[in-house]
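Backbone geometry:
***
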Amino acid sequence: GAVKLVCMAMYKGPKARELQETGCAVLRFLVADSEEEVPFQVTHMGGMQFVVGALDEFPDSVPIAEHGLAVLSHLGWFSPENQENMVTMGVVELALSAMQRHAQWPKVLAFACAALESIANDSKEHRKELAERGVIEPILQVMRANPEFANVQAYGCAALQSLACNSFKNRRSVMQGGAEDIVSAALDAHPNSWKLQEFGEMLFETLEQ
């Protein structure tokens, strides 16, 4: 199938920039809005390792950062095992690095937040570990710097909500970072972004717990 062909190509050409960019883009297309079978195939075929390898090999590539982090966010949502593997493979560091290196590319920033959210989602251990690694402030920073981009705000809210959920310490850090003002302004600025409206309200409900 398509997943096998893409993964084999990425495996055979780890130093080929255009091939890796195309591979990440195709994997993103395949896993987006797909049934569970496709994320399972991507995971089983080593797709996560190949995407992480591409991010590590070509840190300056905007397409790899955007598409690769999008793929990883989908795979993290797929299973707790994938979440654990993403932490072990250094995805937290890669996402934070991409936020700094590609600060002018809102799609990269949005998917970096999404990747962090997918690791923290429904995981007490990862929630604690990510907060200790200092991910809360960089998320707030990209939200402050990109008020005009709804997806940055939406995935930023989602990441903060997953980090703050069932954690008094993390909730306090999010609130002290000024999240409430940032999110209130974002909700007012983007009334037609259902994703932002949903994630923003979820974050507010979590902060009020």
Summary: The CA atoms of residues 49 and 133 lie 22 Å apart. The chain has a mean pLDDT of 96. The two ends are 46 Å apart (CA to CA). The chain has 14 helices and no strands.
